[in-house]
Amino acid sequence: MSNKRKISLVLDKNQLNAPYVASFHGVKPTEETEFSVYASSDKVNKHRKILIGENSAIRFEGESLDSNNEICKYIVGVYNKDDNTVTLRSAPFYNVTRKVKSIESLKLPKFKLEKSLAARNELGQTFGTKKIKQKIRNIERNRVKVESLSDVVSHIHNTIEEKSSIIPSKDELEKAQEEDRLIPPYNSETLNIEEIYNIEDIVPSYELKTISIDELTKTKTQKDIETYLSPLRVKTDSVLYTLIDSCLKQEKKDLIQLRKLLYAAYLLRLRTCREHQLNKSSFMKKTFVGSSIAIVDGLLNRYCDNQGTTSNGRTTYKIPDKEQDRILSYAIILLLMVSNFKINVTLLSKDIKISVGKLTTICSSVGCSIETLTKAQKAELGLTDNAVHKYAILKAPLKLPRIKRRM
After folding, report:
1. 138 or 151: which carries more pLDDT confidence?
2. How far is CA 219 from the centre of its chain?
3. In the record, what terms sit under GO molecular function (predicted)?
């Protein structure tokens, strides 16, 4: 059975080095802040005491409440384990306010007109019309009190600290920037240009193999090729037609290359499809010549937004504005893969009916450098027009431009 210890209570009426109870509002002092208590020299308020403490930024001031106020008396007990006693001491209560030193140092100039303005306002309140009296009251109501600015600055300071804690880090910003890029996964470290982009990230190999090219490879004349490709809007003077024709003229046709070219044509045609056309299976089958169900489903699910289902259970699709640029980026990468990683931007812009500037921006976004052909280079390529021809060239290692964040 444990022994109960007896504790003696001792009332200490000596106020020397007595403890104090203080209430701080908003900002609390640091442990290094030292406080001192000063007694009033006023004989009338001889019990009035002031508590003052300060650090480099803030000055704390508190005044003790009236000692005759029975409601606000506090007693602090100090336990002494040596003699097992608790000494009770009266603890004055201080309501402490704070003052920001930087604000206190700002002294507003006193205008000589201050007294005359006060007199004029008093005269207006006494003899003025209702409109003038209301105007004077509005001015007085909207007058800024300088002494209240310390609380405002403190609140702003606390808000800044709170908001700064949620500012994203550099790594988070870079990650968000990468998510904004409208390009497939890439390898920026490789020195092999063929390893920068992977065809599987644009169209899976099992989908690519389903593209039927038998009918295309059996074409004999330019007119036959043009007729076959007409639903895809590939004209005989276009960059795509030139690449497809060159592939068909090879003694040993590269079927994989030919399928890549057709898929690039699918992407470019997809950009021009309207919403009602996307949701009409007969149109999709007729337009995307040589494609399979897997190809059409892949295009719709990969580049379009699902708009829900109709009453008969059919899924409807729509191409978002942002996806227009991504489709074009993927098509450009495919064209780079089949054209020795060079594209004539000037000619391609005419084919797909967008400005050279817009197409140049898209080519740059996938990592291409833009070069303008000299007269000698134009002559070598058989370009006889007077137009300025720009080429997009992909090089390794890949260097991508910084993305400007949209606010």
Report:
1. 138
2. 52
3. DNA binding
